[in-house]
Amino acid sequence: MGVKESRVSKKLAYDKKIREFLDTYTQVLIVHADNVGSNQLQNIRRGLRGDSVILMGKNTMMKRSIKVHAHETGNTNILNLIPLLVGNVGLIFTKGDLKEVSDEVSKYKVGAPARVGLVAPADVVVPPGNTGLDPSQTSFFQVLNIPTKINKGTVEIMTPVELIQKGDRVGSSESALLLKLGIKPFSYGLVVRSVYENGSVFSPEILYLTEEDLVAKFASGLSNVVSLSLAIGYPTLAAVPHMFANAYKNVLAVAVATEYTFKQAEEVKEYLKDPSKFATATATTASTASDAVPVAAAKEEKKEEPAEESDDEDLVSGLFD
């Protein structure tokens, strides 16, 4: 009986804790915790201490507590957390800046060896150079088709070799070789998969969008709206200027092809009749602009001359006074 009561009390305490967090916090990071040890998790807790708390537990218990709490409080927004509770996940409740919390979580990664049967989370490349292994170990390299040579009594890898590709399962030969070389190719930690904020759920990549990214996405969306509006002939605020421009081009084409004319088409029709007039006008404009500098200089000289004459007049008047 004591064991059953202990389990029940633990479940009740866990349910109370998650309910308090749901009432206190409006921001939650959903993180995957594969291959994360207890010591590593404690370090992360210490790093986040202040505005954030980490809650781990069974998905069934978390889902049940969330459903019951949503029913009792009427806060149905928290139900959006339930579809995210898949696999080995945890919840980070926070009042701080989501990007800063995500960056802090990513700092606590620990290197790990390539264990047999593990799905590689990243490519593994063995660098060239001296391995420190004696020539009797060349069989490992031969099995994996790694070019080597014996240099000063040790095995030396000649070129970089992509030993494992991301998504592949680690074989026994690859695992043994990496272990002999002392290479821990993988690193594990809490990985932010989704972000919950006031009922909205979005990808963590959104936290790292810059103003330039937002402007580019807005421009792309605006371009799509304009293209759709023009294709179906439906006027929108973004497409109206283009519609007017296209309409003007159509009317101008009609005016050029017929005797019909209007004010905005007259200059175009004159140009089509005699382009040389516009060439002369352009040359005249250019020459006028080039002559403007000496003319301006001459005007400045003329402004200075009256000042000299006034000095002479003062001298003459002074002689006869």
TrEMBL record:
<feature type="compositionally biased region" description="Acidic residues">
    <location>
        <begin position="306"/>
        <end position="315"/>
    </location>
</feature>
<comment type="similarity">
    <text>Belongs to the universal ribosomal protein uL10 family.</text>
</comment>
<dbReference type="GO" id="GO:0003735">
    <property type="term" value="F:structural constituent of ribosome"/>
</dbReference>
<feature type="domain" description="Large ribosomal subunit protein uL10-like insertion">
    <location>
        <begin position="114"/>
        <end position="183"/>
    </location>
</feature>
<dbReference type="InterPro" id="IPR001790">
    <property type="entry name" value="Ribosomal_uL10"/>
</dbReference>
<dbReference type="Pfam" id="PF00428">
    <property type="entry name" value="Ribosomal_60s"/>
</dbReference>
<comment type="subunit">
    <text>P0 forms a pentameric complex by interaction with dimers of P1 and P2.</text>
</comment>
<dbReference type="InterPro" id="IPR043164">
    <property type="entry name" value="Ribosomal_uL10-like_insert_sf"/>
</dbReference>
<comment type="function">
    <text>Ribosomal protein P0 is the functional equivalent of E.coli protein L10.</text>
</comment>
<dbReference type="GO" id="GO:0000027">
    <property type="term" value="P:ribosomal large subunit assembly"/>
</dbReference>
<dbReference type="Pfam" id="PF00466">
    <property type="entry name" value="Ribosomal_L10"/>
</dbReference>
<feature type="compositionally biased region" description="Low complexity">
    <location>
        <begin position="282"/>
        <end position="297"/>
    </location>
</feature>
<dbReference type="Pfam" id="PF17777">
    <property type="entry name" value="RL10P_insert"/>
</dbReference>
<keyword id="KW-0689">Ribosomal protein</keyword>
<keyword id="KW-0687">Ribonucleoprotein</keyword>
<dbReference type="InterPro" id="IPR030670">
    <property type="entry name" value="uL10_eukaryotes"/>
</dbReference>
<dbReference type="GO" id="GO:0070180">
    <property type="term" value="F:large ribosomal subunit rRNA binding"/>
</dbReference>
<dbReference type="InterPro" id="IPR050323">
    <property type="entry name" value="Ribosomal_protein_uL10"/>
</dbReference>
<dbReference type="InterPro" id="IPR040637">
    <property type="entry name" value="Ribosomal_uL10-like_insert"/>
</dbReference>
<dbReference type="GO" id="GO:0002181">
    <property type="term" value="P:cytoplasmic translation"/>
</dbReference>
<dbReference type="InterPro" id="IPR043141">
    <property type="entry name" value="Ribosomal_uL10-like_sf"/>
</dbReference>
<dbReference type="GO" id="GO:0022625">
    <property type="term" value="C:cytosolic large ribosomal subunit"/>
</dbReference>
<protein>
    <recommendedName>
        <fullName>60S acidic ribosomal protein P0</fullName>
    </recommendedName>
</protein>
<feature type="region of interest" description="Disordered">
    <location>
        <begin position="282"/>
        <end position="321"/>
    </location>
</feature>
